[in-house]
Fold:
Amino acid sequence: MKDGVNGVALAVFIFFFLAVTVMGFLASKWRRAENADNLDEWGLGGRSFGTWVTWFLLGGDLYTAYTFVAVPAAIYAGGAAGFFAVPYTILCYPLVFTFLPRLWSVSHKHGYVTSSDFVRGRFGSKGLSLALALTGILATMPYIALQLVGIQAVLDVLGVGGGSNWFMKDLPLLIAFGVLAAYTYSSGLRAPALIAFVKDALIYIVIIVAIIYIPIKLGGFDHIFSKAGEAFAVKNPETGKPRGALVSGPDAQWSYATLALGSAMALFLYPHSVTAVLSSKGRNVIRRNTTILPLYSLMLGLLAMLGFMAIAAGIKVKNGQLAIPQLFEDMFPDWFTGVAFAAIGIGALVPAAIMSIAAANLFTRNIYKDFIRPDASPSHEAKVSKLASLLVKVGALVFVLTMDKTVAINFQLLGGIWILQTVPALVGGLFTRWFHRWALLAGWAAGMGYGTWKAYDTPSATQDHFGNTNLIPLIGEKGYIGLTAFALNVIVVIVLTFALKALRAPDGVDETTAADYTADAGDPGVQRELPPATAGAPAGH
Amino acid sequence: MTEPPEGGRRAVVTAPLAVAGLCLAVPFVAMLWVDSYARTGPAFIGIPFFYWYQMLWVPISTLLTTVAYVLVRRQERARKAGEQR
Structure:
């Protein structure tokens, strides 16, 4: 690491940061509706986004700064195993194609703002909806924290934030955070939607330049991979195992496949994905997006190559998360380092804003309105959600400042396992009403319990706890804990559904009809724009 | 709000829909069968097979999803036209 502050890079970084700040505040005027004082406007951007805005929003949402730092960092640390991110992002789009248009339709018809709204309406169970809302909020908080960790990594390498007392050290992060909180509060989902354009443009430029420029400087991919192969073959003197492998070995293939599949299933059930999907203006907007979003997967694959380049370039960092920022600083001229770091920094702001909005919507709709103030008006809901988004971000900030970074990473990993446990109620519920609501709740609890316990019990590469793969019972291969817990969840749901139906347990009221799941904007009986009053009102009024 | 009669819009599995389903299923077979691509050769501009093969599947799966999209949309339009008659 070079000593001191990299002035040119810092200036470029600050320039871009100021530009998106201005955009963030102006965004509140973008596509503004007549009556903007409700959750549909603040929390879903008026459900008005077309194919391209949705594409940028989802891209900005799912491919976060943390992804850009963590995927190459995983490759840098262990080789092939980290590349599962590519099949993972390939597999999630056929899944999205199958179930999210149905969620969009039923949510549009009934004015649902969150996925828990849907579960409550479908199964007539506030308890089940609360369980899913809490899962979503718990899984999102550490994710927001990780975005702040991403900004911190960039600031570290830039040489700012290294002051002697804690206040000066964290001041840059606090400023970035304050700005983020302010424009999210005033502009809602429109702010990240607009900033996502800048973020994605910067990211694409940086990746394309990096993937061409760095290999030329390092003597081509042949040389990069032979260096990486040598580095991975070196055995760790403590464990006697090699550092990694260029190709998944036979004993690692189950892990590779189950991690890809399990992560793909979870990705679009995160509250921030659902928020972005529901903000689009039609079901075919989502389908079209499954055909253009893979462009980001390709970019992710190229990005993963940077992990090998960091090895070939002889980057040595204690904290693997710093490998890529360090590679950029060593390889690029100062001004372009600034552009690259701005890309990572802004890449953290967009998802952090969407995640905090999504978590705030969950809190407002499925905890506050369902349990505390059932008579909350739409404008009161919007106010609560704005405040909740602030609280969620402060929570994430405290998380980052007071706890070790590995805590955030551990929780984010647990978050993936937890989100997978919402699949039976949510995705199952989109296709069938056969499952019993109490069985779904029991299955969720079983999956959550098993997944958390197993993850805690499994040592990871660097610590004694929170590994993500362990032996799958009955199969005897190592696989993703989240997927094993999901299988247990489904078994419990099916067995208990049979039992509860035999006992004639009350089934709850389903307020949706079969036609709701295929309805599109512009169909007879479906409004293009929802008047605010219908948001949250029971259907049929 | 008047609801269309129950079952009036029930999805019937037609040949195009089956093909669309197949298009969506193929990437799962290809990607989850890790053993089929867990090797280093042949390399492409120095990138081992393992990596370029999986990246090649990004455009392939995109193409398959596009085919599925066209088929499903055609089906939906035909159904809507049928309803309005």
